Amino acid sequence: MIAPRPYALLAEITYRCPLHCPYCSNPTQTRSDQELTTSEWTRVIREAAALGVLQIGFSGGEPLARRDLQDLIRAAREANLYTNLITSGIGLDDDRVRALRDAGLDSVQLSFQSDNTDLADEIAGARAQQRKLDAAAKIRAAGIPLSLNFVIHRRNIDRLTEMIALAESLQAERVELANVQFYGWAFLNRAALLPTREQVIRAREIATAAKARLTGKIDIFYVLPDYYENRPKPCLNGWGQRYLTVNPIGDVLPCPTASSAIPDLRFENVRARELDWIWRESESFNRFRGTEWMPEPCQSCPQREIDFGGCRCQAALLTGNPANTDPVCDLSPNRATVDAVLRGVDSLGYHVPAWTYRANPKEVQRVQYVSRG
Amino acid sequence: MQTPTIDGSAQPRLARGVRLQTDSKTGNRVLLFPEGVLELNETAQDIVCRCDGRTVAEIVQALAEEYDADPKMLGADVRDTLADLQQRKLIELT
């Protein structure tokens, strides 16, 4: 199989995070290996650029938890990559914003849990909202383009109007209203997070109206919870086609959630192999590349190169086999699994279960950073 | 898509956070922006490379001379391309 060229690298530089959001897509269990060092990341960035990668997203955990973030951003800019910072904003003081800007940071995606401080702090499991608002102002003042990302779920989906108003007042250029996707901690907490069908329909109406009203001012993206769709999302635009993720300990993943969702997939590590080989030759990147692996009904489906059979992680989590058709598809023999989950949501009424907050991986050893200043 | 009329005196510039760059894999020009890459076709490359403070009329004139083309036909292409890029928030008109 000939590997295409990748366009974007998601660099999960640490699992450490000051927030405890119950929908975090990080694995619920992580290995206790040491985080990649500054020089290891710099090598990964150069190898990614040589492979064809044009964009890098610095994510985590909370990427600001690493003191060498500006060095990594500078390395990415030197490799001609477009640099995005995907952050909670916690830890972003004036000096830090300046350092990131001077390193060449192209854009920031700032997460919000709600517009409402009490609810936002409850969801984050930390007093975070005011610090996020301060961070947004600092990013604006530094002239860095700002996207807001609201993760939407049962507890906050009824506040979409207020969230959009917050985005307007913070002068964001772009807003994602992204329903939780059920992987990692979110899968564990699904019963507490999955909204009802009525909530989803109402939210879509609000998002559509706001999108029209704010055309040319703010770009609004509304991401449906895919359990309510009847065709699967074109996950990753196909496995091993455009994206790759490197996690804090250097494992290279076709998809950031694959390590927890697909336990039998063995991942290569940048400490042992070059990125080019991993992308082209590794079993993990080739297993679901293209269309040959597809079962029916995907194999003969006219949509197979549109949705690529949906999400491998979702197939694994809901059917036990990552090579199955994504059960969100109503042509899947396993669609009943998804319908049963949705019926469960409707039967909850007001008895929504409590969620489990994301815990930090305690075993992860910290690296001492030497900043290049 | 509704095409807003673009005035000849408007000055198109790359929007904030958008970078124009050569893709080392293909040699083509691409626009990079938050969470996206747009590979420019030849027409779009010719236009975007000239979004440097010149007016739309000046860009059309320059391209018409370079390609020895009818400025009227070319003007429509340029405006369509600019309207598309403006819609995607990749350029701003001032």
Described by the principal axes of the CA atoms, the overall outline of chain A is: globular
Q: Portion of residues in helices of chain B?
A: 25-40%
Radius of gyration of chain B: 13 Å
Number of helices of chain B: 3
Terminal CA distance of chain A: 44 Å
Radius of gyration of chain A over alpha carbons?
20 Å
Describe the strand arrangement of the main beta sheet of chain B, using strand numbers: 2-3-4
Percent of residues in helices of chain A comes to 25-40%
Gap between N and C termini of chain B, in Å?
Answer: 21 Å
Query: Largest inter-chain interface?
Result: A-B, 22 and 15 residues
- For the residues shown, what is the average pLDDT of chain A? 93
Topology (SSEs and partners):
The complex is a heterodimer of chains A (373) and B (94).
Chain A: E1 8-12, H1 38-51, E2 55-59, H2 69-78, E3 82-87, H3 94-103, E4 107-112, H4 117-124, H5 129-141, E5 146-152, H6 160-169, E6 174-179, H7 184-188, H8 190-193, H9 197-213, E7 219-223, E8 243-246, E9 252-253, H10 258-261, H11 275-281, H12 283-286, H13 304-307, H14 312-319, H15 335-348
Parallel strand pairs in A: 1-2, 1-8, 2-3, 3-4, 4-5, 5-6, 6-7
Antiparallel strand pairs in A: 8-9
Helix pairs in contact in A: 1-2, 2-3
Chain B: E1 12-14, E2 19-22, E3 29-33, E4 36-39, H1 42-48, H2 56-67, H3 71-87, E5 91-93
Antiparallel strand pairs in B: 1-5, 2-3, 3-4
Helix pairs in contact in B: 1-3, 2-3
Description:
- The complex is a heterodimer of chains A (373) and B (94).
- With 373 residues, chain A is of the alpha/beta class.
- Chain A is built from 15 helices and nine strands.
- Chain A has a nine-stranded mixed sheet with strand order 7-6-5-4-3-2-1-8-9, with helices on one face.
- In chain A, helix 2 links the parallel strand 2 and strand 3.
- The longest helix of chain A has 17 residues.
- With 94 residues, chain B is of the alpha+beta class.
- In chain B, 38% of the residues lie in helices and 20% in strands.
- A three-stranded antiparallel sheet of chain B has the order 2-3-4, with no helix packed on it.
- In chain B, helix 2 crosses helix 3.
